[in-house]
Amino acid sequence: MKYWLMKSEPDAYGINDLIAQPARTDHWDGIRNYQARNFMSKEMKVGDQAFFYHSSCAEPGIVGIVKIAREAYLDFTAFDSKSKYYDPKSTPEKPRWFMVDVKFVRKLKRPITLQELKAQEPLQEMRLLQRGNRLSILPVSKREWDYIVKLEKR
DNA sequence: GCCAACGTTGGC
DNA sequence: GCCAACGTTGGC
After folding, report:
1. Which CA distances in Å does A137 have to A10, A18, A22, A145?
2. Where are the alpha helices (DSSP H) in A14-137?
3. Is pTM beyond 0.85 here?
């Protein structure tokens, strides 16, 4: 089982939007970056867990935990000319983009902000904290995962 | 709103 | 295949 971190802008889609879905499950559409797509389509498995991260907001940070509920399948928003994720180069015959389903597991007892993560000596190697990183889906090591879950309880 | 970092596109 | 131009991300 692997661990991940998935970013979303709370103004567009925050953790409460996921909670509001039927079965607290939703598809994670709109990934238009090859590296992030490859993580989803090649490595994510049902049952993997991921931190739900709020980005581009007043307090960026981890706010909850989700798990992968369905492995990668066609991201249909790429075929929809009215969608902001429309990509004419992706067709049902030759799809370019994929998405997974995620299911809400729980909110953290308190958000763990980017600022707090940065201050942790054991997390200095984390992908999220590397400079210039803009990937919206990132792997998290088990050691990092366990550390952050422990940090939550402090 | 600014800007650094980075990915993608397209001309050559 | 190179690389300049452009677009996007995301913290601040």
Report:
1. 16, 17, 24, 15
2. 15-19, 34-38, 114-118
3. yes
